[in-house]
Amino acid sequence: MFSRNFAQGVALVSLGEGVPRIFRQGIALAQADNADQPSRTLVVVQLAGGNDGLNTVVPYSNGTYYTLRKQIAIAQDQVLRLDDTFGLHPGMKGLKALWDAGQVAIVNGVGYPNPNYSHFRAMEIWQGANPDGPLGEGWVGKFLDTLDAQHNTLSALAVDSALPREFGSHVAPAPTVQRIEDYRLKPGTDSPAVNARRDTAALQLYELYPGEAKYGALLQGTVEDAFSSARTLAQVVTGYQPQATYPTTPIASGLKMVAAVIAANTGLRVAHVQLGGFDTHSRQEPTHNKLLTDLSDAIAAFFQDLAAHNKADNTVVMTWSEFGRRAGDNASLGTDHGSAAPMFIVGGPNVVKGGLYGALPSLDNLDAGNLRYTTDFRSVYATLLDKWLNADADALLGQHWDRIGFLK
Amino acid sequence: MNGEVKTQRRLLDYETSRRRFLAGVAATGVGTALATMWRLPELGGSTAHAAMQPASQAPVSSMGMGSATRQQSADLSAQIAHLLRRTGFSATPQQIARYSALGIEGAVDAIMTWDSSKDPGLDYANSVGLDLSKFADAQRWWLLRMMYTDRPFQEKMTLFWHGVLTSAVYKVGTRYLNTMIAQNEFLRSNALGKMETLLKGISRDPAMMVWLDLQTSTKAHPNENFARELMELFSLGIGNYTETDVRESARAFTGYSLDKDRNFYFNAKNHDDGQKTFLGQTGNFSGDDIIDIIEQQRAAAEFICTKLWKFFASPNPDPQTIGALADTYQSSGHSIRAVMRQMLTMPQFYSDDAMNSLIKSPVEFVVGTVQMLGLRTNAANYPAYLQQMGQELFNPPNVAGWPGGVAWLSSSSFFGRMNFLNYVIYGKESGLDPVNLLGSYVGANPTTVLNQAATLLGKPLGDTSTRAIMQFLGDSSNGSPTVTDKNVRSMLYLVLASPENMLA
User: Fold this and answer.
1) What is the number of CB-based contacts under 8 A between chain A and chain B?
2) Is the Cβ pair A178, B388 closer than 8 Å?
3) A156-159 and A270-276: which strand pairing?
4) CB spacing of B220 vs A201 below 8 angstroms
5) In whole angstroms, what is the distance from residue A143 CA to residue A166 CA?
């Protein structure tokens, strides 16, 4: 999902700029690099369309919630109770089990000042961590730039057909993969020897192409990384056995691929998967139910698999959405674009301090029908960049944001 | 400047192969057409070469040309190829020759004119036995129209509108593919018409109404989705309206309804006919009134002209160019045809900033490949490849359409493009015949064969790509470069896989 305003995108990886990436061969080198200190991975899960926070983390003991949502409120006896105040949407049984194991932190009321109600502008704001200006590099992209010295073509991975904009950086794009079996050059009908030469020449077309030509550096970087990451990924996946039964949904398949790369210990730092369809303007249930169920079941399988590979404590998942939805429901059994919403942080039992953080915005004191945020999203980013990824969060985000205590 | 030298070298390479076509052109007695090449100096800086001296208006009398004329004809061919690629999906050598003979203005007029009573692309699409109630078949149907049309500009404009006035099957529902097809036909018929016609029509379009929840919008509870996206993404752009304008205009669009078969009707009982204040005006506005008020704004002119420029010309719209186009938009009563005619004939369209400045979208890549290779196909499996490349027809990722530009470049989409080439070049069903394309290549000079293959691109293959492919021809022949039955398809694959071919 993207913003349509690409003036920044072009200036970013502009014609003739950028450094071609160093070609790194194969899995062994990456594993050797990573042997001493198995890396920590942040998995960014984007809920595209604007997730309805109030029906996800339900304030079931608050009467105003039921007044505001006469049509689509989740009944008290339906929620999966987290405590006396909040309960999860009934579809989220998998996540509830992780909550019971202390592996889920929920930050309530996350947003930013002067919220934007456009999908695209709001997404840009979350992706660039800059509500006041255009989207330049993505916040993850800025972090990935700091890794370049110890270059590894699988330090980042997006399961998608196009690069998520939080990964946008001044260097060539991170690998994006949809289906592993399609992530390679398929052979033609000429002999294997000719085919091998052909594939070598295909790479050479891009390696030799002048970097100062239009889109030269970008084309070069994209293709070089494609070849390199395809080689590594093929090796990773060959050696991998999932230790959980993943649902057959795309998000579960995406997390399964991420698990394979994490299990191979090749230094994956940030991954991205997304789940779309949250823009529930009408007939919110059963759509929202299916989305939250799929999300929850996928994350549950993911952590079950990681635990079996001894990687749960190396992994933290963060969910985000470009906005929440209006406090009240509309006449179409849905909700319109809103503002603040909760974020989930899910991780291994020894990394996450499970519990509720932040504060639910008041349902009685709304801002033209919308929730007033209580925690800035950049505090969540700062906490993860600093305490999980060991990066200079204040430098990357341009200022200090208070840390939240959801990591041990 | 280094870039300049490189460009120069490439144009000379291009010229070598061009010369053969121009000789062919002259031989068939189209000599007078060469006179139109003298128009070239009007068009301003189009290459990195020093500007050619404007010549006298004396017509060229023979093919005994000096180097100035050869260069100008090469420049014109490059510009025509650029024009063809941007207004369509490819520029074949035959088309370049044909349209070069008309000069820029003549070519633009020819491209923008067609006989509406015939539609060979539609005939072909309807002849291969597709079931338009199936998603993949519907996509193939439109792809085939694009591939075999006699007026690619109409299809290209339709593709543009599909990415602006978006609707997607993932919400509209595969059961109602007929409404997506109907929307497609509506966009096609009105592609070069007046903006109001497009907007008013799309506000009543059943697929659009479902897509943006307009059919559930009532007087008691107006649904804002359509009103917001109408302004943000279809007509004005962020910053040119307020949240209040969104809420007020949503009231004006109430009452738009769909019957059980998803046909449009207006339900007056559900319509809020009270006073609304919108963009500074007050009245009991209808949805059509809202659109009229939107179109009165200068911002509306600049918005759509910017979108058109970024899709057809270059990623860098400059205020003066957009201003000129917006002036035409306003003075012509918001005619897309008028704007496009101006755009395609202005010097900026042929500037260095514009040439080879756009990354081909997946659809352009796929349709262009078929056209460049002269394939006869029913497009089976093409939608799956397009999905991997990141562009599913009738299914944009969200209401903003496809971001385009550098977003088309990802490792996943790169493999999608390569594997599509693999599928059509080595597969048997598309009827690719290397001898047809290249002439008899066995025993021929490999440079000549590669040059011939390169002409399929409609633009020069650069030094580095030529070198890489010659290297392949040598390596795959275990000795000096040779083109044989055992490597000719792979050679074609490499030509089409080149970075040059990724740019429009």
Assistant:
1) 224
2) yes
3) parallel
4) no
5) 10
Q: Which of B218, B398, B247 is nearest to A333 (CA)?
A: B218
Does residue A50 lie within any of the structural domains? yes
As for the ipTM of the complex, it is 0.85
Which positions in chain B touch A214 (Cβ < 8 Å)? 356-357, 503
Name the residue among A198, A197, A217 with its Cα closest to residue A207: A217
Report the CATH number that the domain containing residue A104 is assigned in CATH: 3.40.720
- Are residues A178 and B419, on separate chains, in Cβ contact within 8 Å? no
CA B145 to chain A, closest CA, distance in angstroms equals 25
Closest chain B C-alpha to A84 CA, distance in angstroms: 34
* Relative orientation angle of helices B287-296 and B195-203, to the nearest 10 degrees: 150
Stated as kind and residue range, the H or E segment containing A275 is: strand A270-276
Q: Pick from B257, B410, B419 the residue to mutate for testing the A interface (most A CBs within 10 Å).
A: B410
Q: Which contiguous run of DSSP H or E holds residue A80? A: strand A80-81
Q: Has residue A220 been placed in a domain?
A: no
Q: At what angle do helices B67-87 and B336-345 cross, to 10 degrees?
A: 150
Domain that holds residue A355: 41-169+247-397
Inter-chain CB proximity A190 and B216 less than 8 Å: no
pLDDT at B66: 54
Count Cβ atoms below 10 Å from residue A151 Cβ, excluding itself.
Answer: 15
Q: At B72, is the pLDDT very low, low, confident or very high (cuts 50, 70, 90)?
A: confident
CA–CA distance, A274 with A283 (Å, rounded to integer): 22
Q: Residue A13 falls within a domain, yes or no? A: no
Tell which B residues from 219 to 248 touch A, by Cβ distance under 8 Å.
220-221, 223-225, 228, 232-233, 238, 243
* Structural domain count, chain A: 1
Token pair in block for residue B65: 């040309």
Cβ–Cβ < 8 Å for A140, A388: no
Confirm if B94 and B458 have CB atoms less than 8 A apart: no
Residue in the block written with tokens 């255009």: A134
**Closest A-chain CA to B163:** A4
pLDDT tens for chain A, residues 1 to 408: 223 222 333 333 322 222 233 333 456 666 776 776 778 999 999 999 999 999 999 999 999 999 999 999 999 999 999 999 999 999 999 999 999 999 999 999 999 999 998 888 899 999 999 998 877 889 999 999 888 644 566 889 999 878 888 998 766 678 889 888 899 999 999 999 999 999 999 999 999 999 999 999 999 989 998 998 898 888 888 889 999 999 999 999 999 999 999 999 888 999 999 999 999 988 999 999 999 999 999 999 999 999 999 999 999 999 999 999 999 998 889 999 999 999 999 999 999 999 999 999 999 999 999 999 999 999 999 999 999 999 999 999 999 999 999 999
Q: What is the mean pLDDT of chain B?
A: 87
What three-state secondary structure class fits B427? coil
Residue A114 lies in a domain: yes
Question: Which residue of A14, A181, A197 is the best one to mutate when testing the B interface, meaning the one whose CB has the most B CBs within 10 A?
Answer: A197
Q: What is the pLDDT of residue B145?
A: 98
Q: How far is B287 from chain A (nearest CA, A)?
A: 20
